[in-house]
Design goal:
This protein has helices at 8-20, 32-41, 56-64, 84-87, 103-114, 122-128, 148-158, 163-170, 174-188, 193-200, and strands spanning 2-4, 27-29, 47-50, 73-77, 95-98, 118-121, 203-206. The protein has 208 residues and is of the alpha/beta class.
Length: 208
């Protein structure tokens, strides 16, 4: 995967955190020319690029124009941005992620992008009433309709715990944990553990 950011501290931090997870081979670049050269050499890469990276339009143009048709690009930016219209997500972008997102959330997001789905802050999808990967309309309400125990289970899913670890942490049987996880999936509109973990970090998967 590729991290593209013009700020050296953020670039190094993201690359080191993702590399330390042991899930990816990470390359990082500070300018678009280097990114384009690197991605041409590794067209299976997922790119996390700063939305303010100088020349970002050239990278997205290469994706739109078919030069890099299979390269997912997610923009990195401020967590406080409330709506895609405030960012102006251009064609060729597969998602938007906060620069300060938890490394587990970023790792899940990279896997999701590689699968061909898009990732966006959950608040955007909920506010717009968009559909998620299951194709079901989302409620536009504010809070998730989860019970306290379901919220605890969702939090632990986001932390990467297994069913057995969740049961031990909460004092629940394996069957009860499965029931809670099924309820969390249904109420959050997700299909699997990765999507639930992303949702726990405020990132939602939308249909590709």
């Amino acid at each position: 995967m590729t991290v593209a950011h013009h700020h050296p501290l953020i670039r190094r931090g993201l690359a080191q955190s993702l590399g330390d997870s042991g899930e990816f081979t990470v390359t990082s670049y500070g300018d678009v020319d280097a990114v384009l050269a690197g991605v041409r050499a590794r067209p299976d890469s997922v790119v996390l690029a700063s939305r303010t990276l100088p020349g970002i339009d050239r990278l997205l143009g290469a994706v739109r124009g078919g030069e890099l048709p299979r390269v997912p690009v997610a923009l990195l930016g401020e967590a406080a941005v409330a709506h895609p219209s405030a960012v102006g997500l251009p064609p060729g972008v597969s998602g938007y992620l906060p620069e300060d997102a938890d490394v587990r959330a970023l790792s899940h997001a990279v896997h999701t992008l590689a699968s061909g789905a898009a990732v966006l802050p959950a608040a955007w999808i909920q506010r717009a009433g968009a559909t998620v990967s299951r194709g079901e309309p989302r409620e536009t309400g504010g809070n998730l309709p989860l019970s306290l125990r379901e919220r605890e289970v969702l939090t632990l899913l986001g932390a990467g715990l297994t069913n057995q670890q969740i049961g031990k942490r909460l004092g629940l049987s394996a069957g009860t944990v499965k029931s809670y996880i099924s309820a969390v999936y249904a109420k959050c509109g997700v299909d699997n553990r990765v999507q639930a973990a992303l949702f726990a970090h405020g990132i939602e998967v939308s249909a590709a």
